[in-house]
Amino acid sequence: MTFSLRTPDRKVHAGVILVKGTTELLDVAPFEFFAWVGKDSLKMLNFTPEMIEEGLDVELHWVTEDGGPTKMKSGAQIMPTDSFKTCPPLDIVLMGAHDDKYRLTEGEKGFIRESYDTCTAFLTICGGIMAMLEAGLLEGKTVTGPRMIVEALKKQVPNVNWVDKRWVHDGKVWSSSSLLNGTDLIRGFATETWGGGSGMIEASLDAGHYPARDVDFKDFHGHHFEVEHF
């Protein structure tokens, strides 16, 4: 029987793949949403019995190649729960950006490909899309990435359909634009995957004030800065 992420018949394994290059903390922070949709968390938030009954059984994984810590841009370190060898197959994968001077190891590229093959949803936030690009997984895909380099990516990587959106969904790939647009992606992904029913997912998103913003940036009033090369 095919596994359904919407109506899982077993524990869901969700994981952040961390590489040894410096990672953006704001990219991977939205992953914590999955820690708030379990029954214990919903009880703590005093959700209704109907909503609690819809709580998800999700086991969270933070994964590096050797199971050792990895650095964040702001100087903190994350201690993983798993190495590539100990991590079970992931149903949901999330990747954030890594230092643009860092090149993935063959082991990292291999694990990303393996995880893509076995997962139901592969989420990238901001520059996390570049790991999929390095791993050779974006041919013909419609994706987005850091907004300041999308136009440059269109010219330099023409075999991928780059779009200027807050987030975009193509098959099992969910990609988001810059940094905090990852929160928009989480809302879109969670609503489409588990929304409706008792309203538990929508209530969880609203409780955390995950934004519901225009996917085409029509409500963005700041300065859109672009670079010619990345």
TrEMBL record:
Pfam families: DJ-1_PfpI (PF01965). SUPFAM superfamilies: Class I glutamine amidotransferase-like. It comes from the Eukaryota. Residues 56-182 form the DJ-1/PfpI domain. This is DJ-1/PfpI domain-containing protein. It comes from Cylindrodendrum hubeiense.
